[in-house]
# Entry
Amino acid sequence: MLKPGLAVMFFLALTIPVLSAQTQVTITEDEVVARVVEAFKRRNETLTHVMGWRMVIIATTDRRLMEQTKGKFQNHFPFKTKWEYKEPYYYLRAGAFASRNEASHALEQVKKKFPAAFLSMDKIAYDEM
# Structure
């Protein structure tokens, strides 16, 4: 029976040459694939927004109420807010979520303080995510 130290040395002597062997792999990209990838890159460089989800905290005709709600919301939650006026309503929106699942999870927490809140699809800038 080999001693444990000798067994480890024997194992290392056998595996080190295998680990140090280098293999060179060459990948040849098809021209059509290269053109498609470049077109995809150029198209994505021009995109500034993506469709996503926001929480609508309040929709009201009273601007002061919307501003008060904004202050109250910001005291309780870390989500970035923005408001929008579409006659006759002021909408206070919060958050920027790529998926409805993410937005729904956040909405569950928000509804504890703001029960009228709901989700809405919106254009979201990449830098907001």
